[in-house]
Structure formats: structure tokens, C-alpha cells
Write a structure and sequence with these properties.
Layout (H helix, E strand, L loop, with lengths): L1 H76 L7 H23 L12 E4 H11 L1 H7 L2 E6 L6 E4 L1 H18 L4 E12 L2 E10 L6 H6 L12 H4 L3 H12 L5 E5 L3 E12 L2 H7 L11 E5 L3 H12 L4 E5 L2 H10 L4 E5 L7 H8 L8 E5 L7 H7 L3 E4 L4 H13 L3
Parallel strand pairs: 2-4, 8-9, 8-10, 10-11, 11-12
Antiparallel strand pairs: 1-3, 3-7, 4-5, 5-7, 6-7
Helix pairs in contact: 1-2, 1-10, 2-5, 3-5, 5-8, 11-12, 12-13
Length: about 425
Amino acid sequence: MAYYIIIGILLAITLFLWMQSTSAKKKLKDKNEELQALHTETEKQFQLQQEYISEMSQELRIPLYGIMGLTNLLAEDHPELKNNRKLKSLKFSGDYLLTLINNILHVNYLDSEEIEPQHILFNLKEITQNLVDSFSYATENSDNVLHFDFDSEIEQYVKGDPAILTQILMNLISNSLRFTKNGNVYFSVSLIKKKGTTATISFKIKHDGLEVTKEDKNSIYQEFIGVDKAKKSYLGTGLNATIVKKMAKALQGEIIIQDDSQTGSEYAFAVDFETSPNEDFTNQHPTISNGDAKSKVLIVDDNKLNLLVAEKMLSKENYDCTTIDNGFDAIELVKENSYDIVLMDINMPKLNGIGTTKRIREFDSKTPIIALTAVDVTQLNSQIIQAGLNDYILKPYHKSHLLEIISKNIISTT
């Protein structure tokens, strides 16, 4: 009798444990399904957020391209306005706004490895000097002095990513100026070492304003963390520091902060560049001619202001420019005429630059076609290659970069 009771108890316990296990499994399954649904929704929202930020950045870049282009053309046409405060203010505002837009765009990829530096030839001394000049208006308003020193041992022309470098430097100089009132900011570019064609170049920004405390130093390079609220007027949200850290990493560099309560703070980082003799750069920029004829350029863009800026910019360099505002007419022009290069806006209504290029490639496989885009190129890279585009230029662009890309692609077909 006792035996049957024990068996009954064991069966009851087994049944109870089985029911509990089944219930637990069901709860776990339901929880997993709930988490999976939440994960899917989160990914969807993140993707929508990325698309929105990208689209917004593009919409901001397009009018900014016109503003910056016209400002530069105005300065070229009227050299007597070189020291005009209003023109300086306009140029600074355009450059600074571009940096902010780039910051927003790159925040979109903080958790990815999609920031791929370019490797193009540029004048290092020119972009750093222009950067200093762009801050002249801001320093006057804050009664600060921005000192600049460029090591004469550095070859002016190097290969690297001028856009990312400029963004890092603008953020660091801007933050240093925010820390400083009635003081000094020192910006120096120095050669650390040179091995073969590789030069290691140091960039230092030092200010004698408010020092960065150890606590702040540990926090300002964390994502979206700024300094104490009492100092918020200096560093703002901490967004710039986050971007600077990521941009420096993309260039294989690291931001180092040195603090001294008596002398202020110093930000420094070093980058390796491939050097190139000065004559290499100048030889790439002259207009490429066929005999006595100017190089013929077709510019395709639905934005009238963008067409005006590009045409004026290239006409000054002795290019023969034709402009058209839609893809369908661009196809007909390429069929009926011979161009040395085509500059193709990507974001056009009815028939965009990708579609236009695909149709041109059906009858013309040789003419270089360069994408002009305000969209981050990481989103378009595969489409650009598949369409048959030869290269791309991100708006807004510097004149020297535009001329280099045009010359390089015309040379490659001659």
C-alpha cells in the first residue's frame, strides 16, 4: 500500500514539474517572440531614422552648396572685398554650417564602420590657412587671437581626406575658442617624421582659456555627453567631441588632451599622409585641351543655382561648359555632341542621375561621367558602380577638388 502511495506521489510530482516546465517554455517562447518583434520594430525605426537624417542632410547641403559657391565666386570677382567683415562672416557661417551638417550625417553612422576616408591630392597648407581665415570673424567677436604656424618642412601637397581633416580641425578650433575669452588659441601643423613618401604630421590646438578638468576629460569623448551644465556654453552637447573621436579614428589617429590649470588645454593628433611634389599637383589642374580647343564639359543639374555656380567656377578655368536641367535632354545632348566629361547630378526628378547614366552607357561607354551628389556616398556606392559612373563629388565641394577630379578623369581617357 505504501509502495503505491510513493509511486502516486512521484507521479504527481513528475506531472507537476512537467506542467511547470511546459508553462515556463511557453512563457519563454512568448517572451522571445515579444523581444523579436521589439527588435524588428527597433531596427525598422532605426532604419527610418537613418533615412530621415540622410534626406535632411541632403536637403540642407543643396542650398548650402549654392550659398558657399556664390560666396567664393564673389570673393574671386571682387578681391577688394577680401577683408570685408560681412563677406568674412558669410564665409565663416557657410563653412561652419557645412561642418554641423557633416556632424549630423556622421552621427548617423556612429555604430558602423561606414566612414571610409578618401585618398585624394590636396594642398594641406591652403586648407589649413583657409580654415584659420574662416575663423577670423569669430575671433574678432570674442576678442580672441588665433595664432597659426605651418612647418616649412612639410610639403604642401599631400594625399588623404581633406574633408574629414577639415571637420576635425574645425571642431577642435571651435571648441577651443568657446573655452577662451579675451585669450589666445594656438594652431600648429608640424612634421614629426618622414619615411620615403610617407609623412607623419602633427596637428595641435592649444588655448589659454578654461582648463578641461580630469572629470570632464573622461566624459567629453563619450557619446552625446558634454561637460558640466555650468560650462555648457563652451562645449555644448558634446556631439562635436564624439564626432572628432570617430573622425580621427577613421584617419588612423587619436585625439590626445593635455591639461594644465595654469596654461589651459591642448588637443593633439597625428596623421600619416602620402606626400607628393608640388609640381605633381599643379600639373593635374590645367584645363585639358585637344589642340587649341577647350575641354568641353556638360553639367546636368535640376537646380538652377547649382548650374550657375558650377558653370562660373569652370568657365573661370577656361572650360567650355554646357548646362542642362534634366536627364532626358542630357541624353540627347550626349548623343548629338562630343564632351570630354559629364558632371551628373544624382537627385533629379523624373529621371535621376543613375537612370540617366545607365541610358547614356547604352550608346557611349567612354565619356567620363562624374556623379554630383549631396547624399552620403556610402549609400550610393554600389549604384554608382553599376550605373557606369566613373567617379563622384560630394556637394558642397571645394573648387580644387572639383578640378582635380575632372582633370584626373579626362587624362584617363586620353
